[in-house]
């Protein structure tokens, strides 16, 4: 049997950093990543036979838990009919109809294979539709790894972007503006200066990629008003929030209509599937109707779409009880964090929206990225390693969200609370 350590050493000689996506390397928290042999319900099992209660859930998609029977059945049934067609197929139509049924602003949708691709397309569409070049994003918002969006802010006010990654041309990054999350004044000022040259503003309606940071009342409403006033498009990046808090988008909960929306993660049920959707007049500028080019060999892949349809179906059937129950589960674990920290005398501030939350080692809950960066990341790293030793898998970074799934039963959550308390005692 190969151990985690042996596999990681082998991987390091074959794959940069041993992983196919950076956060999986545990670089932010230290230690050797475990290699998963299989995943079932709320559990990951590694190659050494260790079982972890999973609070990462593949970074959001697995809201039904791992290997959900109806999704597995759908994938198997589709596999018997073919893996990829390169032609339209009926399930694409059914899936698009399900998405529009759940989120009315999606007058048209285009399926792609990743959230990155979806957002990249949304930006291109916005630039083409408005004939403008600037894009406005919020500091700490993550929208995939395309050039235009790998940009961080300097301090205060509107900042012309500097690249967050080597290899992103400065000229391109300088077209991306950033302002702090939840700062309506900085946003207004940015629009005053750049509004008429701004193609779109892109925002996670609940920030989930700097840890969970909820929007303050009025922030998203102000974003909508400013975009309308200056003729910029508003794009909601709902790759995490879509179908996470209710059967639909966060936009429906706050009653704000974005012009464009991106979805991913949950809608693919764990397979590579995402989409960009929105107003028909904007979406129809995509090829072949319009002159904005976008394409994909595996777009609308039948296996992925079958998983997406089965996932949405399972969520829809039980949505009236499923979402309140998910929220209650998250509340239970969030309280367990707070209690365990209090017992140990460690300051902990927890941000939670529905079944997503982040425990920050800080006195006060952060409301933007710079406050997130002020929290105690070193203590989180120590906590993470102890949690893993106690059979829990919280995110391997202080800046990723915890997620709950329907597979986390109340009995399991009781066990999780005990493990959590033991991990904190050792901290
Ligand atoms: C995960 C994520 C993306 C990128 O999606 P990938 O499928 O990883 O490319 C984009 N936006 C948000 C809000 C995300 O959480």
Task: Describe the protein's architecture and organization.
- The structure is a single chain.
- This protein is of the alpha/beta class.
- The chain folds into two domains: 4-67 and 321-426, Aspartate Aminotransferase, domain 1, CATH 3.90.1150.10; 85-300, Type I PLP-dependent aspartate aminotransferase-like (Major domain) (Aspartate Aminotransferase, domain 2), CATH 3.40.640.
- Helices cover 38% and strands 16% of the residues.
- The chain contains 14 helices and 17 strands.
- The strands form four sheets. It has an eight-stranded mixed β-sheet with strand order 4-13-12-11-10-5-9-7, sandwiched between helices.
- Helix 7 (219-230) links the parallel strand 10 (198-203) and strand 11 (233-237).
- The chain is globular, with a radius of gyration of 21 Å.
- It starts with a helix and ends with a helix.
- Residues 153-157 have low confidence and may be disordered.
- Bound molecules: pyridoxal-5'-phosphate.
- Pyridoxal-5'-phosphate binds at residues 114-116, 119, 142-144, 204, 209, 237, 239-240, 264, 274.
